[in-house]
Amino acid sequence: MKLKINELNPNVSNPRIIKDDKFKKLVKSIKEFPEMLELRPIVVDEDMTILGGNMRHKACIEAGLKEVYVKVAKGLTEEQKQEFIVKDNVGFGEWEWDILANEWDSTKLNEWGLDVWENTDDIKDIEEVKDFTESVNFIIKCKDLKEIEKLQSKLATSAVKLNYDEFLIKVGL
Q1: Domain residue spans in the chain?
Q2: Does the global pTM surpass 0.70?
Q3: Does domain 2-96 correspond to CATH entry 2.40.10?
Q4: H/E segment holding residue 68
């Protein structure tokens, strides 16, 4: 069933929010693919209070929609309503990252709201690990204290996390 958006009552006790960039992505998603709202309607109780879809409702308003699809959940107790609100937002599953990386476009996934890897960061981290490994190998060979001090300062700002004292013990210094 389709209702005017202002006939729905946002749930003031909704414990889930979407902010900032993620909210903007949701608004964009609704503008680009409004048909999805019919496939996944906002769930309301008999009083038209939203049980599932508070953030979609808010994003629909931001997107300028005047009507939305709703499903009325009839006959629920207050406890069942609270349970629904939480269970509707719980993510039980996990992403299969290998499939996503190999079979999906990371740019599209990001546009659709999924937090994905950024290949440029991956390359930067790989280069940093490579530089770090070369430094460690050099220090192990010559045990040069000046080089160890340089590495110590590099470790302090590095994405490669390693306890410096543990490192010295491992290389025999």
Answers
A1: 2-96, 119-170
A2: no
A3: no
A4: strand 67-72
